[in-house]
Amino acid sequence: MMQTTTIEQDTEQDTTDLVRAAAAGVPGAWDELVRRYTPLLRSRTRGFRLQEADALDVAQATWLRLAENLHRIHTPEHLAGWLATVVSRECIRLLRHGSRTIPADEPLATAADPRPGPEDVVVDADTCAALRTALDALPARRRALVAALFLDDRRPYVEIARDLGMAVGSLGPTRARTLTELRRLLDGAGVVA
């Protein structure tokens, strides 16, 4: 029994000396702390079932907290408990706030550019030209109907019928025939609608 107490006291003294040496910037002291306590951090993060990248982030945050507070550790023999508490809190913080976030000032690499690409611009221009050609092929009264229904501000059918000299009841059937004719002309021009 006496032997165990002596070994524990030696380990506590060793940890105290190691923490003081790391705080003083002694070469190798920090590396020894990391070597000695990394298995503890891994064990704790495994308990939270984090993804590997998240577990590494949590461990790094824990080591950062230790580096920031190393000079404040009053009882270095309790370092293992301190690290276990900090790593657990970091795991909880990560799980509470979502695993991985991308800073808002960095553009998303996977976000699509909302502007049309050069191919889209060319296709749209060709489609508009084919539509203008098809509209020009329609009789004047039907062109006026298309303009009144689709290009002008939304007006009541009664107004459109009056302006075109048509019966209100004939606007719908005339519109249907006109759209069918436009589709036929666009198909003939090779425009896929």
From TrEMBL:
The RNA polymerase sigma-70 region domain extends over 33-100
* InterPro entries xref list: RNA_pol_sigma-70-like, RNA_pol_sigma-70_dom, RNA_pol_sigma70_r2
Keyword check for DNA-binding, yes or no: yes
Pfam families named among the record's database cross-references: Sigma70_r2
Q: Which branch of life, at top level? A: Bacteria
What are the UniProt keywords, alphabetically? Answer: DNA-binding, Sigma factor, Transcription, Transcription regulation
Q: Which NCBIfam families match?
A: sigma70-ECF
Q: What is this protein called?
A: Sigma-70 family RNA polymerase sigma factor
What's the source species for this entry? Answer: Pseudonocardia oceani
Lineage of origin: Bacteria, Bacillati, Actinomycetota, Actinomycetes, Pseudonocardiales
